[in-house]
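Predicting holo structure, LZGB4YJL bound.
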Amino acid sequence: MDDVLQNIMDHAVAVAREAGQVVREALCDEKQRDVMTKSSTVDLVTQTDQRVEHLIIQSVKKKFPTHRFIGEESVAAGEACVLTDDPTWIIDPIDGTTNFVHSFPFVAVSIGFSVDKKIQFGVEGKGAFCNGEPLQVSDQEDVRRSIIATEFGSNRETETVEKIFSSLRNILNIPVHGVRGAGTAAVNMCLVASGCVEAYYEVGVHVWDVAAGSVIVEEAGGVLMDVEGGPVDLMSRRIVAANNGTVAHIVKEIDAFSPTRDDAPPTQ
Ligand SMILES: O=P(O)(O)O[C@H]1[C@H](O)[C@@H](O)[C@H](O)[C@@H](O)[C@@H]1O
Ligand SMILES: [Mg+2]
Ligand SMILES: [Mg+2]
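Done. Tokens:
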């Protein structure tokens, strides 16, 4: 990794730790978990999500004034979600806000950094690490001996819920050893990267949920795919992250659908 990128990554790690501390403290303070809603009654946000995103963006702006941002809460406030070739920080200040609101203790501060529309950190084959320890995906080749992670998202339209359950039924019927969900895309992807689960899939995620996790999975030896096979498109809101191409064949069992893309022009 060149010095410039290393410098950017060091800052990302430092600000993620600072943000993590704010989230950790807020978990113990009911007032900081006061809930508001966004696209639906189950799409939650708190002042802590907004505060943490602000903290990260201000800190980065001070050091890298020309860089761009895609932040979950900034987009919710009306900013465009457009990935250009420019250096761009893709931020989910609290991935797992529903967990956070309920003190269910699995949340992540997710920060990805892209240049030329490619997520940069780790792409040079330097590996993925958790507190200095290298991560490695599971070597399991048999989907029948696998744990698959997924989520239910926050879209409760009947047709969407039907499709989610249809996929789940197909996957359980393979049969797999188990299905799990941490309540956060970023943590699910880190579980794939660390070999605890063999694959994670979800339709309905956003680019800020998966940008950082995608490079962590690849650097830990895993693969990314669209839910109908083929290359993943981080703006498509569909993702499969697996330990290898064999387990990634769960795509055959997924009842795919296409939510509105993250980079779709705003409707008038
Ligand atoms: O907690 P947030 O950042 O809103 O992200 C979650 C997303 O909203 C849900 O739809 C997904 O199911 C979770 O996996 C995300 O992590
Ligand atoms: Mg999220
Ligand atoms: Mg979030």
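The two ends are 43 Å apart (CA to CA).
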